[in-house]
Amino acid sequence: MDLELIRSLVVPNTTKLVLLSLDGLGGLPHPDTGKSELETARIPNLHALAARSACGLLRHVAPGITPGSGPGHLGLFGYDPLRYQVGRGILEALGIDFELRAGDVAARGNFCSVDRSGRITDRRAGRISTDLCVTLCQRLRAIRVPGAKLFVEPVKEHRFVLVLRRTGLSGKLSETDPQALGVPPPPVRALAPAARRTATLVNRFVAAARAVLSREVPANMVLLRGFDQLRRLPSFPKIFALKAAAIAAYPMYRGLARLVGMEVLKTGATFADEVATLHQHREAYDFFFLHYKDTDKAGEDGDFAAKVAALERLDAFIPEILTLKPDVLVVTGDHATPAVLKAHGWQPVPVLLWSAFCGADAVTLFTERACAAGSLGVFPAQQLMPLILANGLRLSKFGA
Amino acid sequence: MDLELIRSLVVPNTTKLVLLSLDGLGGLPHPDTGKSELETARIPNLHALAARSACGLLRHVAPGITPGSGPGHLGLFGYDPLRYQVGRGILEALGIDFELRAGDVAARGNFCSVDRSGRITDRRAGRISTDLCVTLCQRLRAIRVPGAKLFVEPVKEHRFVLVLRRTGLSGKLSETDPQALGVPPPPVRALAPAARRTATLVNRFVAAARAVLSREVPANMVLLRGFDQLRRLPSFPKIFALKAAAIAAYPMYRGLARLVGMEVLKTGATFADEVATLHQHREAYDFFFLHYKDTDKAGEDGDFAAKVAALERLDAFIPEILTLKPDVLVVTGDHATPAVLKAHGWQPVPVLLWSAFCGADAVTLFTERACAAGSLGVFPAQQLMPLILANGLRLSKFGA
Questions:
Q1: How far apart are CA A113 and CA A150, in angstroms?
Q2: Are strands B287-292 and B17-22 parallel, antiparallel or unpaired?
Q3: B287: part of which helix (H) or strand (E)?
Q4: Min CA distance, A24 vs chain B (Å)?
Q5: Domain boundary at A170, A199, A229, which?
Q6: CATH number of the domain encompassing residue A246
Q7: Partner A contacted by B352 (CB < 8 A)
Q8: Chain B environment of A86 (Cβ under 8 Å)
Q9: CB of A347 within 8 Å of any CB in chain B?
Q10: How distant is the alpha carbon of residue B261 from its chain centre?
């Protein structure tokens, strides 16, 4: 089912659609109890909602494939994550709320240390402070390369983002980080003929950066990797004919929503702030993407109990979200982050879809095991948006 | 998900992966009991393993499509069976352990009887003995055609295999078996311009064979069908970065494993021999493909009780396989062979996947009906290998 086909079926309506994504939702059983995070948590509101919903499992890329945050979210937003890929440099820029434009080339940067003959002695320049990173980025902003706009943005400690903006750029570039000590950073090479001019521009920037930083200790050089160009993605609001808003406390998720053309609403640092923002803007939008981060953080830390607690905190907000009276409410995640893996996982992720027309199945628990037997089955994440639209009575019949 | 993408995500590890294929595993209920072979058999070890595993159903080609042994196995090995096809001539050559090379053209041959004017009177020459077949094949080996190597290999009774080896051959050839009596075998025709030279070579062989066999009774002529050329397949060990070994008592399955580049281990005629071979070579390989034939044979014979008994015999080996301490153990099949069909079937085939990270689902029985509710869902066979790799912690994240 491609996006153009969906677009051709979309009809206007005034229904309210809410997609709540619990980052890293899916888990795995704790070895001691045999129960997953969802099976361990006291989440009566989610279980009750599952009982009134159609349930299933979402697979974001393919069986066995662990999605990064980019593919995880693009799948939820209805895009085939294998077709629409977002590279590391782009994600890093999104992660600091940088307003990328289509055609921009972005790379992840490190400040590093080199000896007098230019050989790397520390790939992270002793993890300099974020304050120093900010200062050094300001100095690098003085660099000019002909015909392109440069942006140098601090991230954290030794990390920064480099963005190039002009027409005709390409992100098909090799990295200048040899991932080794005792050798000089190699120049950027064009990996395709169309990238030759971009390679020249980047190498000029690197040479200028070396000169600017020559007297700095320890951060006297830069390394660049993860070059990628921001492709123009089909517009989410246009394809689905939705006034769409994203509410996320973390910049990367705001950035991913902005990539597909959602409006990003100002909100605070907590999920309570996000829910308040949702209520404030109820009338102005048709579709809300609401992001909850704590589940993923706890999973990445390998902290099973913290992930259970994060689920329980989230569960307490469900009644407040329901007072919004959405026509469709979906609760799912962008990928699994099982605490036992301490990382993103490839496991399919529970999904519940509530609407007046969802056809509640026999599933009464919002857990991996229970949802496996739901009426939605195990299905690709990019098929969720059409299902949400259908339940919001926003899709017409296909064929006569 | 194509193979190149998987290859780009593979990371090295030392985990041990075991794929146990019960040939023709899937079944259908017996009309008297309403229970399938798996539901009838006493298979406590498989059920216990299913309870600790993620379960599902494998579909090898598409709904309603009955897989032959070629597509059944290529799917299990991670190849899209619609994209990578293996023809009958190739399969027949693999079935006698003939060491085919990429570019070889193979055909199935029959000795047949023709009358004085060359019209077929018996397409199988009265099913001559295998001994006579061997003798006649030796005589046919004296035939020379310019520029190509010929191999004539006996199979069983009236059946043999013809293999042509030279550069620039093509398998796009019509058959010489009219599947009718009273007509002479037609010459081979090229079905594509690139096959013209091959057609000429084959027709020379057929003319020479008729001369060599002219005084034989009843096998005085040959029929050729199922021409196919062996394509070079992407290498399983390279794509998945695995030292891969196949253990199979039957030659066709050894041949299919060799086709994709697995090492084929010497083993005996029984499954007990295969399991002993597995243990002997535990340290030398990362991945083992272990093949069990009895289930398929019983199904093809339409012998429900024999298939049940074959499942029970296999079940008794599970503890011995587990003492190998694999990191990932998968039990599934290459296709269904329901006894009530007496043939391969199109039904999806149960699969269980055990690993420390599999996320055991609610399925506690290794049966068609129970596995349908498993967390793996119903999924294409070629997606099993990525799942096995993921569970063996051999795949990195897709996308940042």
A1: 23
A2: parallel
A3: strand B287-292
A4: 13
A5: A229
A6: 3.40.720.10
A7: no
A8: 399-400
A9: yes
A10: 14
Measure the CA–CA gap between B13 and B21, rounded to whole angstroms.
Answer: 23
Residue B61 DSSP code: S
Q: Looking at the DSSP assignment, which residues form a beta bridge with residue B109?
A: B160, B224
DSSP B77-143: TT--TTTS---HHHHHHHHTT----TT-EEEEEEEEEE-TTS-EEETTTTT--HHHHHHHHHHHTT-
- Contact between A57 and B375 using a beta-carbon 8 Å cutoff: yes
* DSSP state string for B303-358: -HHHHHHHHHHHHTTHHHHHTT--SEEEEE-SSB--TTTTS-B-S-EEEEEEETTS
Q: Please tell me whether residues A252 and A371 are part of one structural domain.
A: yes
Q: Under DSSP, is residue A181 helix (H, G, I), strand (E, B) or coil? A: coil
Whole-prediction pTM: 0.89
Tokens of B39: 């539901």
Range of the domain at A133: 91-229
Report CA B83 to chain centroid distance, whole Å.
Answer: 16
Question: Cβ–Cβ of B361/A370 closer than 8 Å?
Answer: no
Tell me what pLDDT residue A146 has.
Answer: 87
What Å distances lie between residue B227 and A252, B86, B88, B89, B252, CA to CA?
A: 56, 11, 7, 5, 17
Residue B199 belongs to what H/E stretch? helix B196-213
H or E stretch at B223 = strand B221-229
Task: Please report, for residues B109, B139, B140, B165, B230, the alpha-carbon distance to residue B99 in angstroms, rounded to integers and kept in the order given.
Answer: 17, 21, 19, 12, 11
CB-based burial of residue B204 (10 Å sphere; 0-12 exposed, 13-18 middle, 19+ buried)? middle
Q: Are residues A260 and A382 in the same domain?
A: yes
Q: Which residues lie closer than 8 Å to A73 by C-beta, 6 or more apart? A: A21, A253, A256, A257, A334
Q: Do B398 and A373 touch (CB under 8 A)?
A: no
Residue ranges of alpha helices (H) inside chain A are: 3-9, 37-40, 44-51, 69-76, 88-95, 130-140, 196-213, 236-240, 251-259, 271-280, 294-300, 304-315, 318-322, 368-371, 384-391
Q: Are residues A70 and A98 in the same domain?
A: no
Split at pLDDT 50, 70, 90, the class of B173 is: very high
- Separation of alpha carbons B12 and A394, rounded Å: 47
Instruction: Judge if B185 and B220 occupy the same domain.
Output: yes
Tokens linked to B26: 């899937």
> Under an 8 A CB cutoff, do B5 and A82 touch?
yes
pLDDT tens across B299-355, in order? 999 999 999 999 999 999 999 999 999 999 999 999 999 999 999 999 999 999 999
Q: What is the ipTM of this complex?
A: 0.86
Query: Which chain A residue shows the shortest CA-CA distance from B386?
Result: A64
Percent of chain B with pLDDT over 70: 100
Co-location of A273 and A183 in the same domain: no
Which amino acid belongs to residue B254? Answer: R
Instruction: Grade residue B1 by pLDDT with cuts at 50, 70 and 90.
Output: low
Q: Which two tokens stand for residue B61?
A: 């080609």
Q: Is residue A77 part of a domain?
A: yes
Note whether A61 and A125 are same-domain residues: no
The pair of three-digit structure tokens given for residue A199, joined into one six-digit string: 């390679």
**Helix (H, G, I), strand (E, B), or coil: what is residue B389?**
helix
Å between B296 CA and nearest CA of chain A:
27
CB contact under 8 A, B398 and A65: yes
Which residue from B234, B215, B232 is spatially nearest to B385, judged by alpha carbons? B234
Distance CA B228, CA B202 (A): 13
Contact A377 B377 (CB under 8 A): yes
Q: For residues B103 and B214, state if they share a domain.
A: yes
Length of chain A: 400
Residue identified by tokens 């992407």 is B234
- Helices (H) and strands (E) in chain A — how many of each? 15, 13
User: What's the rounded Cα separation, in Å, for the pair B374 and B369?
Assistant: 10
A105 and A201, same domain (yes or no) = yes
3-state secondary structure of B400: coil
